[in-house]
Write a structure and sequence with these properties.
It contains 13 helices and six strands. It is an alpha/beta fold.
Amino acid sequence: MASNVNPTVRRRRLGQELRRLRELKGMTAEEVAERLLVSQSKISRLENGRRSISQRDVRDLCGVYEVDDHRIVDSLMQMAKDSRQQGWWHAFGDIPYSVYIGLETDAESLRVYEPQMIPGLLQTRAYAEALISGALPEAPPADIEKRVNVRARRQDRVNAPDGPLRLWAVIDESALRRRVGGKQVMVDQLEHLVEQSHLPHVTVQVLPFEMGAHPGVNGQYAILEFPDAADSSVVYIEGVTSDLYLEKANDVQRYSVMYEHLRAQALNVDQTREFIGEIAKSYTS
């Protein structure tokens, strides 16, 4: 990529602005689609930032919305141009969760709850290799290697000397006890988890079995927040064949409240490190 422009975030910001212009015009997505002879789903994908936006799309939409200020049109056209650049992850080929990587790359903070595995940003390479191999038993070695390399590249945000990602991870006890890659791999992984938890911008808490039912029983999710106020927070829920991105304020607020309950029920930072240490010892006994 020739510049540090994040195409995923550019698409998202542009989509938000196009939605705002449509709403100011008092038009529905269906009405806009009829005017441009395109599907309503295309308009929706353009507005939610999940589809690349061409400068022609922007020009046509500005025409429908009767945007007369050429400075606004030019700005939107430039955003469309930027949104079609490639992020660092494109160098690895087809990545199924590339939209999420684009958001994570630009995020200021990330809150994640993981019930089954160590969060990707805190995994060792050996653990990641064993985990991906087990999750994708039919994947060729080259594909597994690519995914591991992408995961390692994502971790640069956590270990960056300047402006690192603020990461808060609540991890279920089951993730610590699920043996991935053998005993030594688990020992190294748990020791790495404790080591990373000492970084000033990383917080790790474990949710032990004894806490019983809790707000995270429905599964994994992550909440991403961004430095620019124009970028709304996103809740990311990973799926097998497709992922879910929630951006409505009510949805984000609901998941944020759930996360506060998880943090309150989990062990504190010191208790967590001691708890992880005890489980690590169990792998060597």
